[in-house]
Structure of Fe-S cluster assembly protein SufD:
Amino acid sequence: MTAAVLNDALEQGHVESHLHPEPTFDVDAHPVPSGREEIWRFTPLKRLRGLLDGVPSDGHLDVKEELPAGVTVTTISTEEAKALGVTPAFDRLGALAVANAGGAILVDVPAEADLDGPVRVQLHGASVDDVVWGHLVLRVGAHARATVLVEHTGSTTFDAFTTVLVGHGAQLDLVHVNDWDDDAVHAEQINIRVGRDATLRQFEFTLGGDLVRTSTNVDYAGPGGSAELFGLYFADAGQHFEHRLFVDHNAPKTKSHVVYKGALQGAKAHTVWIGNVLIRKVAEDIETFEENRNLVLTDGCRADSVPNLEIETGEIAGAGHASAVGRFDDEQLFYLRSRGISEPEARRLVVHGFFNDLIRRVGVPELEEKLLATVEDELAKNVLRLDTPSPGGSGYSTTEGEV
């Protein structure tokens, strides 16, 4: 199935899913939500600072780029970006970002390139009063190998649409770091198309911001594609972090694996993880598994975790999901305390062990050390204090399923 044919099918509604709205770039087809809709019911709409109104703005973020040899960055029109074969927007925020960005930035990795270092794009905001609309396209040519880091810092009100095109046989490690100041608002839709026999690993680290709501959507341009989606988030008092994932197995012999882990501390810290997987009738012999784990570190937090599978064919290799929300494991803490380790240090070790397996997969030592240091800074706010009680409860709330 070519990209053009797939786009036509999506735009014309030839295939419907109960898990996700029909995608389109038409803003009017995405009405302003009331908050009762399934895809909006967890989002505090008032805290989006008017982004859903879609008022144009000339605000911008400061951009710094580090480009290995052969990688280019150019500005293209909105119509040129659409013509590259992207999946349309799944919600109003995505459609507004495309409509108001006034074009797109195209980061191009040529076919068969084997980069000698990561592509780094750093985006920094100066003020939460600056409303910024963004459109980024990342294209990785056939049989290329690349690592791309997109880092967000500072303060802003930001709505973005990011397109990722992974060419046939290519390998891409894509890392998003959302390390905003505490007053920032960030909404982003990330649409990824994985080529035939291509491999994608995406990492998403959300560590700062007042409200961060991202939506990652993956489909396949041919059989044999593989997508691994990893995420880590750490929410403090009052922060709302929402991660929505949709993997559309629209080709046979494709694979997906989703693992997101989060920690929460402080009053009214709220995290949301929605994992949707659609296995279409044509997607025979696919494999998929999605997992979300949440560690509640203090009282007054809330973690919502909702995994979904929609299966239209029984001819699959395997499909399943797992979801858990819980507090510190008393047995782990007792084991460490019985060996002379203080309670704050025991808590620190448990949380680091919870996150380390994800952080160490990134493969960029500088970033790994930065993330570990950030987790340590977060722990110092509450968990390492002797006078902070462990949250009550009887352990984990879990949901698991397998086909």
